[in-house]
Design brief:
- The protein is of the alpha+beta class.
- 46% of the residues lie in helices and 22% in strands.
- It is built from 16 helices and 20 strands.
- The chain has helices at residues 2-11, 15-36, 47-53, 59-79, 88-136, 138-158, 163-177, 212-224, 280-319, 338-344, 375-380, 427-430, 442-459, 479-495, 527-538, 553-564, and strands at residues 181-189, 192-199, 228-230, 252-260, 263-272, 323-328, 333-336, 349-351, 361-364, 367-368, 385-394, 398-410, 416-425, 440-441, 463-467, 474-475, 501-508, 514-520, 568-574, 578-584.
- The chain has an eight-stranded antiparallel sheet.
- α13 (442-459) packs parallel to α14 (479-495).
- The chain is extended, with a radius of gyration of 38 Å.
- The chain starts with a helix and ends in an 8-residue tail after the last strand.
């Protein structure tokens, strides 16, 4: 609520500033009417000053200024006898017109300020509900933290560069190179080297490894990108290594870089308290250990990347506004995202089994869906469903209208290991006749919509042309849904066109039907796949039928909207040459 209050304070000036502004404004108007035009009846009206007073966001100031301006007009027309040479009847009529204009404009400004106040209250209420939602998700965040802790524990024991893996490397060094050696592993993050493991140093913490000589030598190994062996540090003044701190006493250093895909990501360093010539066997050993450590480090980074991607995916699943449901192959476990659980009346994780899926009654176009024939159960048999209409009847006589996609989940061997379904609530889209506009200019609408999407085409360096009708007409349809249809078609055209153009052409057919054609020079659709598009708009997709260039739910909703308006959507395409989508509205939609 603090942010909303701050924005409100910024948009609404202080009372002192508002009063000063009104005083200056009143003085300016009085000077014009009572001094400059003292002996004339001129059109220095009060409408503009009242509108300017609306800037203060205070309704009482608007009406107070109305009284001030009313007093000015009354003084000029009734008290000041030198106002003009007009007849009394003309002066009275002019006074009444001026007052009517004043109070009419004041009423409009008052209404606008009332409406703005209501919107501000609505924004505050929305913000409050958002805060309540954050608190309600605390339980979910706690479960996520527990999962992260368990995942880190699993990684330290079974994968990546664990303590056990580093201990095995250190034990090999001590066994083959002698117990008077110490070992440290460094990881490179940008330009910074950090210790990720050490053994054999006097101190128990990594600070002893961060001595200037060891860190400098590790950087030398990383920069040369090859093994470096120094049998006597005191004889290699040319390397500019820092002097050894008192009491440390390492006289010989051997190091090999850690690499991933030929890129240095760290260094493995062995230190000896005595001068010793490093043999080829010693160098080969450290290189072999560095290679093994590189593999473990790569596994650790890969696991971290998978963990981060898993978090991102979980965040997406938790926040998408449509339901996602996963059913395992044995139909024993059902997992829903929060939206799916709320939509279907199910817990986020539950046992499936008889009576739990589907828990609600499902009704398709052909009537109630029999047990085992719902999209998820069909997906377990290998079928793919795209944009299938489903009515979900929940307990308590409530129901929602959805579009459902479902597909099988396959493992590496190709066997079906489960099924996933997505449910989009389109209940509000069913009532397509509830928001029919009384009439709007077709060309103005088309120009505005095209102007909004034109930057997307320009970013891809496509030629974008919008051709409205030669003579505009007015339509009486749901403008919002018509805009969604046009935007969906243009977005698809831009998305699947890498070069060439996207043209939008409006036409009034001889029988009075308006149509809009969206054509592109994109990837196109093969002739044998054109028939599949209409099927996919409304019904399931055969698993052996090729995809139609990413078309699906967006065009499905567009076709549904067009048909609800009494029109139709058509497509013509050539593979590799482009596509043309045309939607036509009935002549009854034209009001002029």
């Amino acid at each position: 609520m603090t942010d909303l209050s701050a924005r409100s304070a910024v948009s609404k000036p202080s009372l002192a500033v508002s009063l000063l502004f009104c005083a200056v404004l009143a003085g300016l108007v009085a000077w014009l009417r009572l001094r400059i035009f003292e002996h004339a009846s001129v059109g220095v009206g009060y409408a503009l000053p009242i509108v300017l007073v609306g800037w203060t966001r205070r309704r009482w100031l608007v009406w107070l200024m109305c009284l001030v301006f009313f007093s000015m007009a009354l003084y000029k027309f009734r008290v000041n006898s030198n106002v003009s040479t007009l007849l009394p009847q003309q002066r009275d009529f002019g006074f009444l017109l001026l007052m009517a204009d004043l109070f009419f404009v004041a009423a409009i400004v008052d209404l606008v300020l009332r409406r703005e106040g209501s919107l501000e209250l609505g924004r505050q209420e929305l913000h409050r509900r958002s805060e309540d939602l954050k608190f309600s998700n605390e339980g979910l965040r706690e479960r996520q933290e527990i999962t992260e802790t368990l995942l880190k524990l699993s990684r330290s024991l079974t994968a990546g560069l664990s303590r056990e893996a580093f201990a095995a490397i250190a034990g090999t060094v001590h066994r083959l190179l002698g117990t008077s050696t110490a070992i440290a592993m460094w990881e490179l993050h940008g330009q910074e080297l950090t210790v990720i493991g050490h053994d054999g140093f006097t101190a128990e913490t990594a600070q002893s490894v961060d001595a200037p000589r060891q860190s400098g030598f590790a950087r030398l190994v990383s920069e040369t990108q090859k093994s470096v062996a120094i049998g006597n540090v005191s004889l290699r003044s040319d390397l500019n290594l820092p002097a050894s701190p008192a009491g440390e006493g390492f006289q010989a250093l051997l190091g090999s870089p850690l690499k991933m895909e030929d890129k240095v990501v760290g260094a493995l360093v062995v230190c000896s308290h005595r001068v010793r010539p490093w043999t080829e066997t010693d160098i080969s050993l450290i290189e072999s250990l560095a290679a093994q450590a590189s593999v473990s480090l790569a596994a650790t980074r890969l696991l971290e990347q998978i963990e981060n991607e898993q978090k991102e995916l979980q965040t997406v699943l938790d926040t998408v506004p449509f339901g996602i449901v996963r059913l395992d192959a044995r139909t024993s476990k059902l997992i829903c995202n929060p939206a799916g659980a709320a939509m279907l009346g199910l817990p986020e994780v539950s046992d499936a089994g008889p009576g739990n899926w589907p828990k609600a009654r499902l009704v398709g176009r052909g009537g109630e869906i029999a047990p085992g024939e719902d999209p998820l159960m069909r997906a377990l048999r290998g079928e793919v469903t795209v944009a299938m209409e489903l009515e979900i009847h929940l307990p308590g006589s409530s129901k929602i209208n959805t579009l459902c996609n479902a597909a099988p989940i396959r493992d590496r061997s190709g066997a079906i290991s489960g099924a996933v379904g997505a449910f989009l609530d389109v209940s509000s889209q069913k009532s397509s006749n509830e928001t029919i506009d009384s009439g709007f200019d077709f060309n103005d609408w088309l120009t505005v919509e095209c102007r909004q999407v034109q930057p997307r085409a320009e970013r891809k360096h496509l030629e974008f042309v919008c051709n409205p009708l030669q003579r505009s007409i007015r339509l009486s349809v749901d403008r919002n849904k018509l805009s969604r249809i046009l935007t969906s078609l243009i977005d698809n055209a831009i998305k699947y066109t890498d070069s060439g153009h996207v043209h939008v052409l409006a036409e009034l057919l001889p029988d009075g039907r308006p149509s809009v054609c969206v054509s592109d020079t994109g990837v196109g659709i093969a002739p044998e796949d054109l028939w599949a598009i209409a099927e996919e708009f409304a019904q399931g997709k055969s698993p052996d039928r090729p995809a139609s260039g990413g078309l699906g739910l967006g065009l499905s909703v567009s076709k549904r909207f067009i048909e609800a308006m009494g029109g139709k959507l058509e497509v013509a395409s050539q593979l590799g040459r482009g596509s043309t989508f045309t939607f036509t509205l009935p002549a009854s939609c034209v009001v002029e």
